[in-house]
Write a structure and sequence with these properties.
The structure is a homodimer. In chain A, helix 2 runs parallel beside helix 3. The longest helix of chain A has 20 residues. The first copy, chain A, is built from 5 helices and 6 strands; from the N terminus they run βααβαββαββα. The interface between A and B is medium-sized, with 29 and 29 residues.
Chain lengths: 203, 203
């Protein structure tokens, strides 16, 4: 009998800017409101016994946005990373650390630190950068295992370059709510939905 | 003003075996019922002005299935390929032609033949095989362009290894109907839905 709990779950917390605009705030104000939902989701994953979590923080493409936005998501990302490290996560940051866009304070997490639930944060990540590693010994994300389930907020029905290799067999679940409106029920529903998906892996 | 018609559409025609079982037929009987829907969809794409189409025929993993199934999907795949070639498609077959599982009669289409709408059929395809090309000059599927839209039948919300690199920004649309129950309205709805998707490509 198969365990129907996903081992590794990916999250794409999209919709921060649209959330802010809907409230008459400047776009960049949304990101700070994404931190606390992330911490609630982290605690929920721990409680549910998820073994590994990957979160799409920001990409190399995202860094082409206006600098006020770049600063805002960078800051939110650092705050979240340091807080989960403090709470005992086994934190790995996956992204191009050779670029100035990579936050210096997160460099030590390019090697996994800690012994709790595995948390992979994609920071200054790019799918092309990731795959380029294959020319030299393996994916840049090779320490990240295959994904079972991916949940995306903000209504987009696409991966947007999120770990293309680890995503090949992942079930993909989309929520229309914007990420700052995260509710633990969203993830509970995704877990229930996941149980009912047929998993043949091509066999 | 952006043209909201996708240039390149991928199709995952899943559910042939479940369709057969629902009718009290042996599983392998489903595949033959997938050919005529494929030809209707081909004509619909041509009529709508789609420039390039990729279809998931069978994978290296699929060839591990019972041989009666393997023979049935192989035969359906060859019949479909030869018929669209006859109708003037610019046909490219993408898959590992060095294996005995690759149909000999399709070998000449490992180089694109013809000058009509581009049709890429994934035959004895594997995402690992595809990516392995990166170690030697490029993806094995490097002649296949980036996908804008992917439509899958049979209810599965996952890519199942379908062109992971070309799929990075594709909008993904799922139909619950089994593939042999294809109706042109399914694709019309997908095109309408696609128009309303926000496309930022990470910017």
């Amino acid at each position: 009998m198969k365990n129907n709990l996903p081992s590794h779950v990916g999250f794409i917390p999209d919709g921060n800017r649209r959330w802010a605009v809907d409230r008459g705030l400047p776009k960049e104000a949304g990101y700070a409101h994404g931190i606390e939902p992330g911490l609630r989701l982290y605690e929920q994953c721990k409680k549910r016994g998820i073994k590994e979590v990957s979160i799409y923080c920001f990409t190399q493409d995202n860094t082409k946005r206006p600098s006020v936005q770049k600063q805002a998501f960078g800051k939110a990302c650092i705050a979240f990373a340091l807080e989960i490290a403090r709470r005992g996560a086994a934190l790995l940051v996956v992204g191009d650390e050779t670029s100035a866009q990579f936050p210096k304070v997160l460099k030590k997490f390019r090697q996994r630190q800690g012994a709790g639930m595995k948390m992979n944060l994609l920071v200054n990540y790019g799918w092309e950068w990731d795959l380029a590693g294959l020319k030299n010994g393996g994916l840049h994300s090779k320490e990240v295992s295959r994904l079972d389930l991916i949940v995306r907020w903000g209504g987009g029905c696409r991966l947007s370059g999120f770990l293309p290799v680890q995503s090949v067999y992942a079930d993909f679940c989309v929520r229309d709510e914007y990420w700052p409106d995260f509710d633990p029920q969203h993830f509970e529903h995704a877990l229930t939905w996941f149980k009912n998906q047929d998993k043949t892996l091509g066999g």
